[in-house]
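Input (structure):
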């Protein structure tokens, strides 16, 4: 038997993680917001990569069938490439954010309440997403 592709399991695991981390009982912890945002970012990477790969294969198939006008379908289409690079940048910096958060929580537990306020996570996450968009805005052109 051939093994199944890994993207459906990654997609399902990421959606399950988002659901769990944003549940009302879990959302009170600031680290769970970071992890939920990381799961959304990874899901975006999976979707954009899947669409880009399907577009490439579809263009090959249409070309073999003799259909013209396949130039619009490209694996490096600006939209998918831009979305993918923004999500990758966000994923990297969200991972760094989770690491810093855990470092402070584990190595400096008495300073953690001052350094990691409960309502500070959404601001950090929005800042990381805004930075990712601004950093990769030229990829759409």
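Output (sequence):
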């Amino acid at each position: 038997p051939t093994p199944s592709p890994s993207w459906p399991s990654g997609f399902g695991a990421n959606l399950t993680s988002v659901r769990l981390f944003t549940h009302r009982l879990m959302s009170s912890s600031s680290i769970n917001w970071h992890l939920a945002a990381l799961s959304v970012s990874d899901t975006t990477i999976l979707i954009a990569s899947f669409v880009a790969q399907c577009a490439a294969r579809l263009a090959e198939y249409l070309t073999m069938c003799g259909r013209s006008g396949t130039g619009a379908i490209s694996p490096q289409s600006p939209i998918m490439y831009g979305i993918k690079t923004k999500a990758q940048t966000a994923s990297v910096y969200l991972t760094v954010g989770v690491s810093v958060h855990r470092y402070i929580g584990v190595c400096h537990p008495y300073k953690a309440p001052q350094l990691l306020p409960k309502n500070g996570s959404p601001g950090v996450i929005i800042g990381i997403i805004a930075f990712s968009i601004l950093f990769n805005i030229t990829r759409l052109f």
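Notes: DSSP finds five helices and no strands in the chain. The mean pLDDT is 80.
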